[in-house]
Amino acid sequence: MDRFTVVERALRAAAPHALLDALRSALQECYAAQSVDLLMADYAMTILQPVTRLPYTDEPLSVFNSPAGRAFGAQEVIPVDGPDAGQVTAHLPVTVRGDRIGVLSVVLARAAADASVVTELRELAEVLGREIVVADRDTDLYLQARRASRLTLAAEIQWQLLPGRSCARPEYELGAQLEPAYAIHGDNFDWSTSADHLTLTLANGMGEGIEAALLTNLTVNALRNARRAGLDLAGQAALADQAVFGAYQGRAHIAALMLRFDLATGHIEALDAGSPKIWRLRQGEVEPLLLEAQLPLGMFEETVYTPQSLPPVLPGDRLLFVSDGVYDALSPLGERYSRRALQRALLNTRLLPPTQVPRSVLEQVVSYRDSVEPDDDAMVVCMDWHGRPDAT
Question: CB-based burial of residue 372 (10 Å sphere; 0-12 exposed, 13-18 middle, 19+ buried)?
Fold first, then answer.
């Protein structure tokens, strides 16, 4: 049995809370690893926290100015000189289907760190990522390790609703972020893919705190229930509208944007229920995509919703989706962020991968507000469209 298979089997056989211990032992035995550490990205995507004894961990590393952070951001193996002479540390991205989880740092003897070893270690980091996703069903260890501070109850509900913070397929790449990460209220994004379509939903619930989180929870699960029953966008919106109205009788409602992308053609079917806004970057030109506004979900009983067709996305297009917390952010002089600054932000981040764009835009929003306190949470979702190579 080859060494890669030995380590992979050790991971699969390990208890959910003992993945790192099992991996460390197997890498020491099969690859002569001298040190193995797992760093988890926190909810704000600004630091990498070592997985050690909880609820406390060792000192975190910055995503922005550390070798491990460069491996996380670039999604590449970053080798650096080890702590002692004759050693090298390989920082390996831990990612599952484009969803960035963290970094695996392995210290090896320099003589043993040839290209084939590094390639195998990178593949094992991917195996570790998949095992962590499965283990999250049975242990809180890795979820706790992602927290730089305690989440509010509303944020706990919201984060548990999310499909991930990034996703990649040959046809597209997605990156998303919510802020403030540890105290979000009603903003949410959701996606689901099939062989032929991508469904993307963005929601912005009214209210604050636990009330907003519960409203969004009801809406997202109603939309998922309808989608999994095979209903089209109009049917999904109608079911969610009825669920929210039935629970709140019009006292609360939620804005939503629902999109269905044809993976072969780039055709977009959209439904705007008082939704977050869309901006498109195409060949260096930024423009908003205007939709036919319809009522938010749950405002009135038995509202009829009608999807519309948008121009297809083309390979090389970038779409940016922002909630009111970004779109309506005010400068100290009272100018909305959406007026000019959002277009500049989209142009300034055009060379970044979509996984890094949301964080960059949100940081620019904070600078734009200066000392003005936000009155709403903020959501940014970025999509790069590649299309299918064989599509006509």
Answer: middle
